[in-house]
Amino acid sequence: MTLEVVDKSLETFVLNLGPQHPATHGVLRVKLTMDGEYIVHAEPVLGYIHRMHEKMGENRTWAQYMPNTARMDYLAALSYNHGYAAAVERAMGIEVPERAEYIRCITVELNRIASHLLWFGAFVLDLGGFTPLLYAFDDREQILDLLEAITGARLTFCYFRFGGLYNDIDDDFITGTRAFIKRLRSRMPMYHDLVTNNIILIKRLKEIGPISQEMARRYGATGPVLRGSGVNFDVRKHEPYSVYPEFDFDIPVYSEGDSMARYMVRMDEIEQSMRIVEQGLDKLPEGPIMAEKVPKILKPPKGDYYCAVEAARGSFGIRLVSDGTNTPYRLKLRSPTFSNLSLFSEACHGMIMADALALMGTLDLVIPEIDR
Amino acid sequence: MLTTELIRLLAFLVGIIAFAAGNAAYLVYAERKGAAFFQRRTGPKEVGPQGLLQPLADGIKLMTKQLLVPEGVDPILFKIAPIMLMVPAVMSFVAIPFSEQLTARHIDLGLLMIFAFASVNVLGLLIGGWGSANKYAIIASARVVSQNVAYEIPMLLTAITLVMATNTMNLNEIVAQQGGGFWNWNLIRLTWAASPLTPVAFLIFFTCMLCETNRAPFDMAEAESELVAGTFTEYPGMGFGVFFMGEYANIVIGASLVTVLFLGGWQSPLPFLPNSVVWFLMKMYAIIFTVIWIRWTYPRIQFYKLLNLSWKILIPISLFNLILTAGWLKVF
User: Fold this and answer.
1) Do residues A359 and A209 make contact, with C-beta atoms less than 8 angstroms apart?
2) Under a CB-based contact definition with an 8 Å cutoff, are residues A152 and A167 in contact?
3) Which of chain A's residues have a Cβ under 8 Å away from the Cβ of B136?
4) How far apart are CA B248 and CA B254, in angstroms?
5) Contact A198 B298 (CB under 8 A)
6) What is the ipTM of this complex?
7) Do A128 and B303 touch (CB under 8 A)?
8) C or N: which end of chain B has fewer Cβ atoms within 10 Å?
9) Residue A8 in domain
10) What pTM was estimated for this model as a whole?
11) Which domain holds residue A361?
12) pLDDT of A31-81, one tens digit each?
């Protein structure tokens, strides 16, 4: 009998983190080769909930695909709605009324706040602190109630239409949103007191899990992961779409590249999103919410189209190839967390498991978006 | 004479077991209600008035579950591990002075005995993790051992400091010395007999107590977001139940010890109020409430930083405190 040892100098063992594990928040499986508590090698195994969303796009009409977009990143579904709607509008050359674009931005930013709040709670839960999760859910619930009233859904939104929206917002939504923003502003200092300035949390995050600028670029990381590594890139600012150029907001960038930087980027983004929502409500123009003359049956002209939006987890790109029929010829999705997860293997090399899980938490993984 | 002593012991035995089991059951309830309070929700409320029968329902659920022994485990170790955790915890109650009369045995080396038994319960977690042949459980039990070894040292150093100041290891006598008002408690005792660092010693002791009982933020044995359920991952039904009861019995022991050593045990805080067991229970449950409060507020500390905290901070400070007290006692 011969014993097989991967490396003679090390006695390692393989630890299956997932597919069912409390820290992976879904059916992600990571094969960890461990030397005691240290990670020698990590290999994410994907595909447990692959639903072939891209292939589905090829055998249904352009409009029928809209609900699919909400089922990828179910925590920030409106950004995906927006990306797909914008891509098809670009292909068809549809002009969206200004009011509709403002409402799109407002709802997308509210959804981004909801997503970040949930991440905040779940991330602290990963670190062993249970209570902030329920406080964050309390706040997130308010956003979901607001969005439910106008979109009819709480999670898997299908609110945008090619050329506009399904439903106009009403006064209740506007007053409710303003009240919510006031409430969240008053609660953010509490979160910072309770969690951000907590000595244990600082010790768990500062200088842990560094992702260098070069590494983030190499893996195509986007969103808070990239901005936490000191790269100032946000699709909303650098390749503006919709009415984002009308808003005055900052892109939080932290150059440290550690887990704390990514944490702070997201916490600051909540504030920036609140600013956008407030400005949107102030500037909201009157007018129609649907473009006129949108054909019943869409047949975009032959060609290759690309549109990217800034989703809560990074830039979501969608590439459409149309052959002029009523179904897409090819629909390619570029989802942010897939790239963000790819760097996990390299980033967690040599780390302790607890730190690696903290690092994984800061990547803000949503598994259905990785396995599309 | 012999028969009365025997009856007395028997009564105490039954009482202690009932106290430990009842506390374990209702501390789970208190923990859930406490967590609900901190998280602004209701907590258990369906079973019985205010959910007071919830522990009973949980107990029935755990007891009726099949005692599954997974394939590949070491059956003997797997089965005795929960008992190894529970028995020392219950045994330690023997030396705890609930009140002047309400003490099972007036043991002269009571403090030593409790520490001796406290060291045994680590073994329960270790062989439980080892016996379940589960990687998560083994990592957890390895962590538990190094954690307990690291934190037993400052805990013992602090205890020695106190023993030097009080001149006895008999817990009854330690409490008796703290009589006559809260300013005489060891926690804030500003006499020439104790070093001025006693409040620091209290903090160290409390931290070590949290750590020894594997409570958050030091809950390496369970670390549910990293190690699934740590040492208990493979345990079904009552095996898990006994582990859980053992954990809570340990918390009660830890809180009692803090009460006895620093907060004056059964002594009333003001001289004109009578001393009674009620004071002891009030102080003990206040400590337990603090423990629950801490658990639901702080995130978990990282394992190596936990060890560093002990070796680099707590041990030097408690050693310094020991030397200071020794010098203090010599001079004054």
Assistant:
1) yes
2) yes
3) 15
4) 10
5) yes
6) 0.79
7) no
8) N
9) no
10) 0.85
11) 13-370
12) 888 887 888 888 888 888 888 888 888 888 888 888 888 888 888 888 898
